[in-house]
Structures are given as C-alpha cells and as structure tokens.
C-alpha cells in the first residue's frame, strides 16, 4: 500500500511536470497562457480539443509545439475536400511476397498516433470527418470488418477558422460533442506582437525539450480522476446544467428566449472532468466552484443549440453561459 505522504509527493511531482511543460511551450508560443492551460486540461482529462481562431494566430504551431514537448507519436493531417477516410484510418493493400504469394497487408494511417493534429478539420467532407468518430469515442478503428485499437493515450487536437466558410463543411453537432473542449484562440496582445516579431524574424531559434512520456501521462490521467468533488459542488453543477434547458424552472430568461436544446449528460461528465483537471493543475486535491465556472465556457459552448431567434440575433453561446452562471449565483444569494 502507498502511504498518503508518498501519494501526495507523487501528485506534487506530476503537477510540477505540467508546470514545466507549460513553461517549455512558452519558449516557442508567445502569450496564449489560457489556451495552453485548456489544452493541457483536455489531455490530462483524456479528452479531445477543438481549437478555433483566426488564420495566422498560431493554432497549428501551438499543437505542434505540444507534440514536441511530449515524447509521443505525432501525426498531422491536413484536411482538404479530396481527403478520403482511408487516408486517415489506413487500408489493406495487396503485397506480393518473395514466394510469389499475394496477401492483404494492413497499412496504418496517421490516426494510429498518440496525438493527431486534424488541421482545418472543417475543410474535409462529412464522410471523411466521420472517420474520426469511432476513434474519438471508442479508441478503436474498424476497417473492412476488423477492429483495431489506437495508441494509448490518444488525443485528437483539431483546428478550424471561424470566418473561412467557402469550401468548408461545418462539423455536425454529434461530432462537436466528441470534443471535450472547444477553445477559442484570440489575437495576441500589442506587447506580444513585438515579442513574436523578435522571435520569428531574426536569427534566434528556440528548441524545446521532451518532458513527458506516455506512461507518465497515463499516471497523471489516473491521478486526476482521484480529485475530490463535494456533494455541494456536485449539486451546483447539476443545477447549472439543468439551467441550460429552456423548459427547466430554473432557466434564465435568456436561455428561454434563445436556446433550443440545453446541455446533455455528456456535458456534465465533461464539466466535472475538466474541473478536476484544473484543480489538479492548480496544485489542489479537490475542486472548487471557481474550477466549475472556469471550465464552463470551453466545455459547454459547443453543446448549446440555439433556436432560430438566437441564430438570427447573433447571440454568442458564451454570453448565454455567463447569464446562466449569474442567474445561478443570484438564486444562491436569495436563499
């Protein structure tokens, strides 16, 4: 049996490792601390992440840098309209042996990696996009009736541009729900632009070290699951999720006006997972209400479905979630 002191020492070591990873990524990526944190939350929660931002803000560079810091198998798939499912999953091909005998041999596709960068995922057709679904949900790939396991741990880190709509195929809600987080990546700040220019247009180059292997990541994922959740916070989270449903008695006026469908069961599962990850990365062994509130936006913004009035009015999901949190806090203070 491992003593409590040894367990705390191990957890502290893992937390320090995550801090070092973030610092190492910062050698290449200027700013974007919150985005980096959220990507790490997704990974230690054993989930996938969709990174959305304007062209040129460094989405692909960030994911590639993370792959360089982690000692994992990495593959990058550039999604284009002519990409086929077999280009992702792999396929069986006929090979001729030295004896002249022919047989089908399976050739793995890029999905059989620890980190899969699905670059500009919405540029591929729905048929090709759907080739990721089984791997993202079940950690398996079925090809010609034969099921194979993907690598462990396994992460799909996808990117897309919010304004580049010509020649794109928006992800269906069922696939969006497979992503644990939808992370918005904004423009750098003014002072960060100066640093970006200094780092990228001169003679300086920055190299990162590999700090974590797959075995340690799996141990961290197990440690995150042990983070404690109080009954009070669990009640708060359940009520918060229910408040996103327009038919619920606790729903705010904004939800009733603009939301068609609220967050489902996978949403609350994801919210607790990410809150645990945030608490763990912050050096705590229990989650707080602040962890829940910070996790709400990346976890739930792609799980709210607006009605026609919401779409026509241009209401943002984040604004609705802010209203839900404020509504919940007012109800708590009134009691």
Written overview of the protein:
With 335 residues, this protein is of the alpha/beta class. It has 15 helices and 13 strands. The protein has helices spanning 4-25, 33-44, 59-69, 85-89, 126-129, 133-138, 173-176, 190-200, 214-225, 231-242, 253-258, 265-281, 289-300, 308-313, 317-334, and strands at 49-53, 70-71, 74-78, 90-96, 102-108, 115-119, 140-143, 146-149, 155-160, 181-185, 212-213, 259-261, 305-306.
Counting DSSP E segments of at least 2 residues, the number of strands comes to: 13
Note the run of SSEs as H and E: HHEHEEHEEEHHEEEHEHEHHHEHHEHH
Q: Numbering strands along the chain, what is their spatial order in the largest sheet? A: 3-6-9-1-10
Please state the overall shape, judged from the principal axes of the Cα atoms: globular
What is the C-alpha radius of gyration, as a whole number of Å?
A: 22 Å
Uncertain residue ranges = none
| Integer average pLDDT | 87
**Separation of the first and last Cα atoms:** 45 Å
Share of residues in helices = 40-55%
Please identify the structural class as seen in this structure: alpha/beta
Strand fraction band?
15-25%
Largest sheet: 5 strands, parallel
Number of helices: 15
């Amino acid at each position: 049996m491992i003593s409590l002191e040894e367990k705390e020492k191990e957890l502290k070591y893992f937390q320090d490792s995550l801090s070092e990873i973030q610092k190492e990524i910062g050698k290449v990526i200027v700013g974007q601390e919150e985005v980096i944190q959220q990507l790490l939350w997704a990974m230690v929660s054993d989930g996938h992440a969709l990174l959305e931002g304007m062209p040129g803000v460094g989405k692909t560079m960030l994911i590639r840098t993370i792959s360089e810091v982690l000692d994992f198998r990495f593959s990058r798939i550039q999604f284009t309209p002519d990409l086929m499912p077999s280009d992702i999953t792999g396929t069986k091909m006929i090979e001729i042996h030295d004896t002249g005998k022919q047989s089908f041999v399976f050739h793995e596709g890029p999905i059989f990696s620890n980190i899969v960068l699905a670059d500009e995922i919405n540029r591929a057709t729905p048929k090709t996009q759907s080739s990721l679904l089984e791997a993202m949900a079940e950690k398996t790939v079925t090809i010609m009736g034969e099921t194979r396991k993907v690598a462990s741990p396994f992460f799909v880190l996808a990117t897309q541009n919010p304004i580049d709509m010509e020649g794109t195929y928006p992800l269906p809600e069922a696939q969006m729900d497979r992503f644990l987080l939808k992370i918005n990546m904004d423009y750098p700040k003014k002072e960060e632009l100066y640093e970006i220019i200094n780092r990228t247009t001169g003679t300086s180059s920055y190299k990162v070290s590999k700090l974590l292997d797959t075995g340690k990541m799996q141990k961290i994922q197990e440690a995150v699951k042990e983070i404690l959740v109080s009954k009070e916070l669990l009640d708060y989270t359940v009520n918060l999720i229910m408040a996103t449903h327009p038919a619920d008695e606790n729903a705010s006026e904004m939800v009733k006006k603009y939301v068609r469908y609220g967050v489902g069961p996978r949403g609350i599962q994801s919210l607790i997972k990410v809150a645990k990850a945030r608490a763990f990365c912050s050096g705590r062994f229990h989650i707080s209400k602040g962890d829940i509130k910070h996790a709400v936006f990346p976890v739930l913004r792609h799980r709210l479905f607006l009605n026609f009035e919401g779409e026509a009015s241009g209401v943002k999901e984040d604004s609705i979630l802010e209203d839900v949190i404020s509504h919940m806090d007012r109800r708590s203070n009134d009691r």
